[in-house]
Specification:
This protein is an alpha+beta fold. It has helices at about 10-15, 20-35, 60-75, 100-120, and strands at about 1-5, 40-45, 50-55, 80, 85, 90-95, 125.
Length: about 130
């Protein structure tokens, strides 16, 4: 499970307007969705977050995919009325372990996301183990 969050999303809305914020969400959703398999799942969660499920994928593979997607968002050329707007995302990654529920995996992925944001944003963080 990967939990994504748009970095400094409020600043995009405040500086360029809600229309630009809506466009950012749509473009990021498209970039993320276009980089996964048909069997995978992505959904918008909350205001500027996305949750992604990569069935049968190990942590190292999920982390590599997340880095590729993070870079794709960063280099997507997002703009508002021709004005380039730098846009980045952060990601937390957690794998299902025996005894997990979707909620426990989400909590670990969300904690990993907050570590990525606290470590400077524009990065992906894998939950180390079940204690995250």
């Amino acid at each position: 499970m990967l939990v994504w969050d748009i970095d400094h999303f409020k600043a995009i809305n405040d500086r360029f307007g809600h229309r630009a914020g809506d466009k950012a969400i749509a473009i990021i959703g498209h970039v993320l969705a276009s980089g996964i398999r048909e069997s995978d799942f992505i959904a918008r969660y909350g205001g500027e977050e996305f949750v992604m499920l990569l069935a049968g994928t190990e942590a190292v593979t999920a982390a590599a995919l997340a880095e590729n997607l993070r870079n794709a968002v960063k280099n997507c050329g997002f703009n508002s009325e021709g004005t380039p707007i730098p846009i980045t995302v952060s990601c937390g990654i957690a794998c299902f372990q025996p005894g997990d529920t979707p909620d426990t995996v989400f909590v670990r992925a969300d904690r990993a996301l907050y570590r990525a944001k606290n470590d400077g944003r524009d990065r992906c963080q894998v939950a180390a183990d079940g204690s995250d």
